[in-house]
Description:
The protein is of the alpha/beta class. It has nine helices and 13 strands.
Amino acid sequence: xxxxxxxxxxxxxxxxxxxxxxxxxxxxxxxxxxxxxxxxxxxxxxxxxxxxxxxxxxxxxxxxxxxxxxxxxxxxxxxxxxxxxxxxxxxxxxxxxxxxxxxxxxxxxxxxxxxxxxxxxxxxxxxxxxxxxxxxxxxxxxxxxxxxxxxxxxxxxxxxxxxxxxxxxxxxxxxxxxxxxxxxxxxxxxxxxxxxxxxxxxxxxxxxxxxxxxxxxxxxxxxxxxxxxxxxxxxxxxxxxxxxxxxxxxxxxxxxxxxxxxxxxxxxxxxxxxxxxxxxxxxxxxxxxxxxxxxxxxxx
Length: 300
């Protein structure tokens, strides 16, 4: 079994559909179907049961998962180590971060990098989920959780202050919330509970039990613009919120911090283009003054 067939098999097994596998691999759905059929013919075994809603692994398919994942790990190791020897300031880099960190810090760093090294192209992926650098889902990550994988190199590059914000129009219409009232009589904008559960307990230490959650969104951009639009109150990174004159900080004694980590794989951290991007990111963050305050793990 060759690696091309193995990776298609794994994609189908993980997504449960030919369409899902095709989207994950950026290939045609018909190609995925042909490869699966060819692999089943090659192995003289059915790998999937075709139900009305999904493709389900057969016992033969389940037995193939381990060897296919071993091939995947070996392929990723080869890719990382070959890339790690690249001294050219050209090529593509994949950077994973959150919407907030991208808008405030990572995109300015990319702009600096492109001015200095126009041969480097960037794929910027924004999500609250953590990209797997070992599987080369990204080459560099900028995130607020420190990784614990031994093959990753992490450097703390900033400590961001967060505060509670509302729009001036909201405050004019509804008044300022008072500390110790748990946002009684006020509207809140939060991420969904299953994505950012700490927000459903308190904002910067102020309980939310008496506030009304009027809007939920998985998008950091949507949450931010909802506050600008006057829909409610939420916790924001101060460095970003202070760029918008429409916003005002409420409960100014309530504040928190979150660490920001710059992460890459040990096999890639000496690659010329990866080093250039990381240096640009560090330069942008160096302009940010780091507050010395207690903190908790958060998602920017």
